[in-house]
């Protein structure tokens, strides 16, 4: 019983020891496993730490690189900005003259544009005035054409008025330098030229202002070229017929010998003569052969200017003769005045001689006796007798002019003044 108890006790003790041992082993195993896990966990942590450290190092390195890159970029940006500002300043400095030039150019362009606008406005106004003047001229031309168609009398009066205007424009004066509608008697009857122009020396030349313009006016109104050409041909024939008739009047034989041997046939428009010459080119040569000078306002103006110049030369010659006459008269009067001056000089010279004689007599005959009063101490109130000296300066002789009374060309009562050398 005791053995069983002991056995049970022993068994229990053994079981307790075994259980304890098992617990201990289990604990060691757990601790070993825990240690293994801890070791593994530590290794994992170490790996994680190492990985984390690598990541952190890489991150730090990346951050450092980023910071450096940022600084480099910032410095590069600052450098680039500074260079850009410097380049901008240099560019502005280089472009400043260009900008100023462009500004001046712009001002000039504005001024030119303003001037152009003003001139354009003025040109438009002038063109408008020119159009109005052209319209008025056309209207007047139509009125003139209508008036000239009324008959030969109207054409004649218009030609005479045009001729008078040309003569006055050239400087000739009516009833002084030229006469209108003067009458002259010839063997064939009384002639009445339209205008006679006076020339220097008493000469004259005749101007005839009559010319039919009906055919020319018909040509202007013609709508067909053939009809127009036929009218121009009739106009040329009319001019030639009038020229031949004017040549037959021989006006140049009715005046003095100094007059020109031609008569001027006045056509009151260059276009009238040009139309006739286009159809008859030999008209001018034939007219000169017949002593007829065909003139228009242009050529007659030049001819009358020559007449005015001749009158001016004639007037200057007359003035020169008058000046010569006045010079001779002045010379004569100067000669008389020179004679008077010579007489005055002689009189002055005689007066000086007489004065010197008077002074000499006074000194020798009177003053010697008067000074004896001083020796006798006569009271003379402090006044002394003055010293009277002779006049030594003579009268200046006439060296440039001398009197010559032997000249037979002047009256005996007048002294002649002759020039001397020097």
Automatic annotation (TrEMBL):
Cross-referenced InterPro entries: DNA_recombination_RmuC (IPR003798)
Cited function: Involved in DNA recombination.
GO annotation terms (biological process): DNA recombination
Family: Belongs to the RmuC family.
Keywords: Coiled coil, DNA recombination
Signal sequence extent: none
UniProt source species: Phenylobacterium glaciei
Pfam families to which the protein is assigned, alphabetical: RmuC
Protein name: DNA recombination protein RmuC homolog
């Amino acid at each position: 019983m005791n053995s069983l108890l002991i056995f049970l006790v022993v068994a229990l003790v053994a079981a307790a020891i075994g259980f304890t041992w098992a617990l201990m082993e289990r604990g060691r195993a757990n601790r070993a496993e825990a240690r293994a896990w801890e070791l593994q966990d530590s290794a994992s942590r170490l790996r994680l730490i190492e990985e984390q450290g690598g990541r952190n190092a890489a991150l730090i390195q990346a951050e450092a690189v980023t910071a450096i890159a940022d600084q480099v970029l910032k410095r590069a940006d600052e450098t680039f900005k500074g260079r850009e500002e410097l380049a901008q300043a240099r560019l502005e400095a280089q472009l400043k003259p260009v900008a100023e030039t462009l500004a001046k150019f712009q001002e000039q362009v504005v001024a030119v544009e303003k001037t152009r606008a003003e001139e354009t406005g003025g040109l438009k106004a002038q063109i408008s005035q020119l159009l109005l003047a052209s319209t008025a001229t056309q209207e007047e031309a139509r009125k003139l054409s209508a008036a000239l168609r009324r008959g030969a009398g109207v054409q004649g009066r218009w030609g005479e008025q045009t001729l008078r205007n040309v003569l006055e424009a050239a400087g000739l004066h009516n009833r002084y330098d030229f006469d209108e509608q003067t009458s002259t008697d010839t063997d064939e009857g009384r002639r009445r030229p339209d205008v006679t122009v006076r020339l220097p020396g008493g000469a004259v030349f005749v101007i005839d202002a009559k010319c039919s313009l009906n055919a020319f006016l018909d040509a202007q109104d013609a709508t067909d070229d053939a009809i127009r050409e036929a009218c121009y041909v009739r106009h040329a024939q009319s001019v030639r017929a009038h020229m031949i008739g004017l040549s037959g009047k021989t006006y140049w034989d009715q005046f003095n010998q100094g007059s020109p041997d031609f008569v001027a046939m006045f056509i009151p428009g260059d276009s009238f003569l040009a139309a006739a010459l286009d159809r008859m080119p030999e008209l001018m040569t034939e007219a000169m052969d017949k002593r007829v000078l065909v003139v228009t306002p242009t050529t007659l103006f030049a001819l009358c200017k020559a007449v005015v110049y001749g009158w001016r030369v004639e007037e200057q010659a007359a003035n020169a003769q008058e000046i010569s006459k006045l010079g001779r008269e002045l010379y004569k009067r100067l000669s008389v005045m020179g004679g008077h001056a010579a007489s005055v000089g002689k009189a002055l010279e005689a007066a000086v001689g007489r004065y010197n004689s008077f002074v000499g007599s006074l000194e020798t005959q009177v003053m010697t006796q008067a000074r004896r009063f001083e020796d006798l101490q006569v009271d003379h109130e402090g006044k002394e007798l003055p010293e009277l000296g002779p006049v030594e300066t003579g009268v200046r002789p006439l060296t440039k002019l001398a009197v010559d009374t032997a000249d037979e060309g002047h009256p005996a009562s007048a002294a002649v003044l002759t020039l001397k050398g020097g």
